[in-house]
Amino acid sequence: NISAKDILIAQDASRKNSILSNLNQVLFAGEPKQCDFNLLMELDDNVSTARNQRLSFIMSCSNVSTLVGLLGTFAGLSITIGSIGNLLSSPSDVGGDNASNTLNMIVTMVASLSEPLKGMNTAFVSSIYGVVCAILLTSQSVFVRSSYSLVSTEIKKLKIISNRSNNKQRSLRVESETLVEFKELFKAFFDNYLTVENLRTQDEEKKRVMLSDSFVTLQNRLLDNSAKLEQLSTLIDGYLVSNNENTKKLVDGVITITSRLSEGNTLLADNNA
């Protein structure tokens, strides 16, 4: 059987898994958005159940291996203690002054230590075996949990997408059944608003045209008045120039007459003398 991690890495729809069944077909074949929501729910439940079963089995094996290690440790300690007890309780035939008997006693004691050493070896090997198996099984549980978490995450994403699509279709159906009158009223209101807005725009356009025409007319009249004022100013300037010239001529005439009268008076005075 191919593990779930191999399916996720390869993303091959043709691969099968005995635990996840056709989950790879749902995830990697065709359009994932078109998956049945009920099928996704069932697959989610199956994945959760399989994950719990695998993790429970792995943790049970880890606990059993730990217990086996403890059992071996205690068994080795029991063998060691029993061997030491037998060694201590065995009768001694050693004499106080016999060197040969002393040597035999030492050899016998060394030979008797093999059983306690075997017991201690059994205890240490069992402990190491239990600890190593527990570590390996714990690592396996972490790997299995992460693999199933990836699969569960993908299924949840597909469920959200499918549920969102169903809710969208459902809301559209409700709108088509219950909000038809509201749509018609809103359409009538919007049409009326557009009509009023068009009339207001046309009225404002007319007012703008009238204001523009009035402004142009006023501007033309101001230009005409300016031209007339310039003509009047020219006439006044001409009149003033002409009046000044006539006044000058009149003054010159008066001066001439005065001088003539003075000359006449002088002549009369001369004649009278």
From TrEMBL:
Transmembrane parts of this sequence: 64-84, 123-144
Keyword Nucleotidyltransferase: no
Signal peptide coordinates: none
Example of a GO biological process term: protein transport
The entry's keywords: Membrane, Transmembrane, Transmembrane helix
Gene Ontology cellular component list: plasma membrane
Record-given protein name: MotA/TolQ/ExbB proton channel family protein
